[in-house]
Write a structure and sequence with these properties.
single chain, 115 residues, mainly beta, seven-stranded mixed beta sheet, four-stranded antiparallel beta sheet, 11 strands, 0% helix
Length: 115
């Protein structure tokens, strides 16, 4: 199982960012993909999850209305798009797949929000 994320991003405050997570080695539609982030010196923060098979999503309350999860089954890739970025959202963003017996993580995508 492998989750490969897109590269580092630099954005101005107020901008949007879209991060991808390409899956391989398992049935993409059989497991949810979760998105988690970690700001410098902080713990992991769960953002929400998507069901790639049906497209159903669940967002953490603090991100409601500002984040969108999508999944493209033709390219077995999940995406997170976050709008109206602020500087305190500088963090490493991870996709995560809880499997039947293990948990797999992407390598992380550094998103830096700075003017």
């Amino acid at each position: 199982v492998q989750l490969v994320q897109s590269g580092a991003e630099l954005r101005n405050p107020g901008a949007s960012v879209k991060v991808s997570c390409k899956a391989s080695g398992y049935s993409f539609t059989s497991y949810y993909i979760h998105w988690v982030r970690q700001a410098p010196g902080q713990g992991l923060e769960w953002m929400g999850r998507i069901d790639p098979e049906h497209g159903g999503t669940k967002y953490a309350q603090k991100f409601q209305g500002r984040v969108t999860f999508t999944a493209d089954t033709s390219t077995v890739t999940a995406y997170v798009e976050l709008n109206s970025l602020s500087a305190d959202e500088t963090a490493v963003y991870y996709c995560e797949r809880p499997g039947a017996y293990d948990v797999n993580w992407g390598q992380g995508t550094q998103v830096t929000v700075s003017s």
